[in-house]
């Protein structure tokens, strides 16, 4: 009898409880979960407090197969620096940048220092590499630009796509088409919501119907008179 009790007592000494008396295992898990949540919130808070910047090209806006296309004449290059902080984005216009324009065929290069958010330049027909380097932040954007002579008897249509509830929200990536004209390829709205359809085989003063499709929004169509005020298309989110 004594021998068995002694073995039982000895066995219990070799398996002590890892939870001190008076403290529940559930309480320890709850506190650990709270600590993890607080750490994640702190990391998110720190990331949100740090400003992040990116550079967006506002003009030129028409792009096909990754190449920006414009007609000869005065070309406007325009850029905006986007600042993201505290889960909000703010566009900063007039940001100084050094602009380099390189003609790809003849390999001639033009450099213009500290242009304030915009540059107007006349370029002859050809293909160019344009690089914009901001002065205030280490941001850079490069685009390929093709300059060509305008086609006779063809029209150009530009417009802007915004949100129906807030016109300050510019909608990018929307597909704009003129379905009534065979062979017209769709174009995509830029980051500032602007789209441009070139080489429309109609005269100014004639009407065309444009159709707009964007994922998450209701499709939209409108009759537009070429040569009139650029349309502002307001898209409505799907419910």
Radius of gyration: 31 Å
Mean pLDDT reading? 85
Query: What is the chain-wise order of helices and strands?
Result: HHEEEEEEEEEEEEEEEEE
Shape: flat
Q: In CATH, what is the class of the largest domain?
A: Mainly Beta
Query: Strands across the major sheet, in which order?
Result: 2-3-10-9-6-7
Cα separation of the termini: 78 Å
State the total count of DSSP E strands: 17
Features:
single chain, 239 residues, alpha+beta, Immunoglobulin-like, 2 helices, 46% strand
Quick structural gist:
The chain is 15% helix and 46% strand. It is α+β, with helices and mostly antiparallel strands. The chain has a six-stranded mixed sheet with strand order 2-3-10-9-6-7, with no helix packed on it.
Task: Give structural notes.
By secondary structure, the protein is α+β, with helices and mostly antiparallel strands. 15% of the residues lie in helices and 46% in strands. A 6-stranded mixed β-sheet has the order 2-3-10-9-6-7, with no helix packed on it. Strands 1, 4, 5 and 8 form a 4-stranded antiparallel β-sheet that branches. A hairpin with a 5-residue loop joins strand 9 (126-134) and strand 10. It is flat, with a radius of gyration of 31 Å.
